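dude i think i finally got it to work??
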Amino acid sequence: MTDNKRVLIYCLTLVLMLGVMLCGFAMSGNIEYKSAKSILKNVDFDNTFANYTPKNNSNPQIMPDFTQEGETLEPQPFEGEQPAPNTVETASKTPQRNLMTGEVLIERTSKRVLYGSNENALLYPASTTKVLTALCVLNNLPLGRVVEIPSIAVGVEGSSIYLRAGQKISVEDLLYGMMLRSGNDAAVALAVETCGNIEDFAKLMNDTAKQCGAKNSNFVNPHGLHDENHYTTALDLALITAKAYENPDFVRIVSSKTRKIKVDDVETVIANKNKMLKNYEGANGVKTGFTKASGRCLVSGAIRSDMQLVSVVLNCGDMWNESVRLLNFGFDNYEMVALDNALLTGGDNVIKISVPQNIGEDWKDVKFPMKKDGSERLVVCATKSRLHIFDD
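look at this
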């Protein structure tokens, strides 16, 4: 065999071996890709916060706004006069208490219930609990106070912003971490800073809830992780949220799509999990929630013109779209009417409300949600209590 033939054979053999190796790498890479894709598909990104601290403090990390599969928000607005939305029937996998979907829609200032279904059913609220936690903190702590993270707040299960013992962070940034990223560790840190321990903070939560008009709730922790004795109703949670909306700092926090927070000297940009803020006109809050026991929960807020609506859905598999339907129902069928004009209405459906006896000269500026079709007639009585609606 000539030298030229040997060289040719060696070259062909080398090419063949390289080809086999490349094919092997390609197949291996494809398997790894499929495996990684399979793993990612099953990760609950809604409870994920990247555990990474950038070395360069001048360039804050941006947290990705991950979403879960099957939760696309596809608004289907009602047009004109529409009946109330149908209740979403959910095949609940949760034990004991959560056997149904509870939902309600109210107008913030009057607390009038515009729509309700199982709104007084005792259900588990999951992380929507943090609406009440935020209200309690805002009522008792200055936003600028610097908190040293206690060891009890470290490693709390579920959603987290991965705080470490001894780190320092302001109350305001803890509130952002709790309300935007649902940080359970942030909730515990705030509770301890407010009352010294979880038990006393839970007492504060229950006292505050009662002051908001919540009559059928009991709270035992600041984050909403499952406990048989931690429950509320859609209506109670809506009333708590309506009260929280009176605080402009609360509105500012829960309506923020992103926020730069600082832990020690490290800045991090966090993104809000609430997709309503990006997908619904006028959305300005509020909070998502999920545990296996509670099912999917969502408290939503939206304002158009001068009407602020609050919707609550508990144990609702289609929580995004159902919240959109509830809010659309309110905006499509109701409007805020000045009290003096509302008194001139002549519909067949009588709505009785009471107003405080000491209401000032600005009483004509008070507005009330009325149906746009003119079917309602308002009757007002004076009382020593706040404005409220009562039945015959």
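Residues 1-42 form one domain.
im so relieved honestly
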